[in-house]
Amino acid sequence: MTRDVLLVLAAFLACTVEMVEALTIVLAVGVTRGWRSAIAGTLSAVAALAVVVAVLGPALAHLPIDSLRLIIGTLLLVFGLQWLRKAILRAGGVKALHDEASIYAREVSELRLAGERPAHDWYAFTVAFKGVFLEGLEVAFIVVTFGGSQHHVGLAALGALAALVIVLAVGAIVHAPLSRVPENTLKFGVGVMLTSFGVFWAAEGAGVDWPGSDLAMLVMIGFVVVVAFVLVEVLRRTAPATQLQAAER
Amino acid sequence: MRYLRGFGRFWYDFIVGDDWRVAVGVVIAVTCLYVATHHGFNAWWFLPLAVSVLLATSVAIAARQARRS
Quick check: pTM over 0.80? Predict the structure, then answer.
């Protein structure tokens, strides 16, 4: 039960982060080049991602669960540590924060420079497709790996679908980049989840018996949060003021 | 060939990212744990500890590089 709830939550959070980034690109394309090609590119990318999940998900269900957890846990751990490392460096003031508003402005100016708009705007289609497909690949990876490790791809896909619906609905209403979404905080949360799941599954796959069984996963999340906050605090105390100001700009 | 290289580059950046040492460290840590458990040693604490050390080291290296530049 604990695993299932965490599985849906992790997929939901990861998908929210990636969809906010994809939405920024699609909005920039739609506003500057027209909505028809932007929506066509987006739908094509979503369809391509659905095929990736539909093909890889059931394939994973046929593999032995321990080997699957060992391989996927290790992959998630590598992938999750990358997210967490970046989030810690951002929160600690070493790296600049992700800013959807400035990314949107940059995309718009690049798209305006791309010249005249034909009836079938392949440029707009390609930019929207590429943006959604590349951001969505991370979601597909998380859905397939999270779901596959528990033989519950459907549950992970449910979390991803909920995020997709919410972000699309908000995007359709506000028609502007979702700059108020605390994306860096969400990324921090996703990094913590991916790392915790990765540690738990990789260790289980390697043959470890966790004390407290599934409850160990919650303890692991708490442990990773503490480690991450300690590192952020150390960075904030040791980073020079000029570096902190530059990162916040 | 260019597409193949680009495809490989995408997956490398996507999974391994900025610091390859973390990826190598994780693989070594999981392998050590696998060997330990298959010799009857239930070292559940090993991976969280290894991950904390890897993360702290990687963050420290990145912070030092940022300060130098």
Answer: no
